[in-house]
Design a protein that fits this description.
Order of helices and strands: EEEHEEEEHHEHEHEHEHEHHEHEHE
Largest sheet: 7 strands, mixed
Helix content: 25-40%
């Protein structure tokens, strides 16, 4: 089969389309013929070699895929009431190895697509919407009327968080670059913030002098400290990324990583207690062991999709062989929404 392989850590040009051996599903696994593959910022971090658990090159990156079941190995039960079978349209969470024509995935990480959902939408939902849902409602327990600041609100997780926030009746602050402000207004952000020109803490405190209930921050470094300043009593700072460690040239930078690490605040438990504030770390990969919880969360997301309350925004699709261009597109901050690789 064809697969997009990272030959060495580095910028997008390190990708190489190769012929590799077809995956052979082991007991308890499902073989999927890929039709659409979600591209996440985590994939860029994998390519750079700064994502936790990334294999040594050469390796195939990617964490989500939608396609058709080709084979169910012995013991391959997904946990759904109706067993997954050959020919089913599904979405799955492979542990890497998604940028390929065929993917073998543990059955417990395979989910049947709802009727009427396209493969592109299927590949655009899991990582982004589960990250947002798990952060906001499972870990964060947000309630209608609560106020949330979403950094990167025009990105994949950001748009998912905005849509979920609207569905739950939250007041939304959203930050993005200058060229994306009109888009933020269009999707329902109550208080769009141009982070390139405006101090987001000042904007939040202008409309919420007592502080807000949640900030979702994938940036890291000094951004964590500034986001923390936005919180009031019962506030939650959700940290789910560390993009400050990734250089704009698309390569790992030890200096940049060290600088971001040194700028990261050290939260004092006594202060957190006295201010009634929580700092929540979210890593979707670590939720894999909670299969029942993950399946329930995705079921809720699919329900909202069926009710028309959420809908992935697909920024652009690229054929699998143009994965390097897809990464460059995200790296250059050109995307508004999700980027998808398609497989013919």
């Amino acid at each position: 089969m064809r697969a997009l392989v990272v030959r060495r850590y580095g910028p997008p040009k390190v990708f190489e389309m190769q012929q590799v051996a077809d995956p052979q599903p082991k007991a308890g696994e499902v073989l999927i013929r890929a039709r659409a593959i979600g591209v996440n910022f985590a994939d860029l971090m994998q390519r750079m070699g700064v994502y936790p658990g990334t294999p040594k090159p050469p390796f195939i990156p990617g964490l989500e895929v939608a396609g058709v079941v080709e084979k169910v190995a012995e013991g391959g039960r997904s946990g759904e009431s109706e067993p997954i079978k050959t020919g089913d349209a599904v979405v799955a969470f492979p542990h890497f190895n998604a940028y390929a024509e065929w993917v073998a995935v543990r059955a417990g990480q395979v989910y049947r697509l709802p009727a009427g959902m396209t493969f592109d939408d299927g590949a655009a939902i899991p990582v982004n919407y589960l990250t947002a849902y798990h952060s906001m409602f499972t870990m964060g327990n947000l309630l209608p009327g609560d106020r949330i600041l979403i950094h990167g609100a025009a990105g994949g997780v950001g748009i998912a968080a905005v849509q979920l926030a609207k569905a739950r009746g939250l007041v939304i602050f959203g930050s993005a670059g200058r060229t994306k402000q009109e888009f933020l207004r269009k999707i329902g952000v109550d208080h769009p913030i141009d982070h390139q020109r405006t101090d987001f803490v000042q904007v939040v405190r202008k409309y919420a002098p007592d502080g807000i209930e949640m900030v979702m921050d994938p940036i890291g470094g000094k951004s964590f400290a500034r986001s923390y300043e936005c919180l009031g009593s019962t506030g939650r700072l959700v940290v789910y990324g560390f993009s400050a460690a990734a250089g704009p040239e698309g390569k790992r930078s030890r200096l940049r990583s060290l600088t971001a690490f040194l700028q990261t605040p050290r939260f004092n438990p006594v202060e957190l207690m006295s201010r009634n504030i929580a700092v929540i770390g979210v890593h979707l990969g670590q939720v894999r062991s909670r299969g029942t919880l993950l399946r329930w969360e995705l079921g809720e997301i699919f329900r909202l999709y069926g009710e028309g309350k959420i809908k992935p925004v697909i920024s652009k699709t690229f054929p699998l062989e143009e994965g390097a261009a897809a990464h460059q597109y995200i790296q250059d901050r050109k995307n508004i929404g999700k980027v998808i690789l398609t497989v013919k």
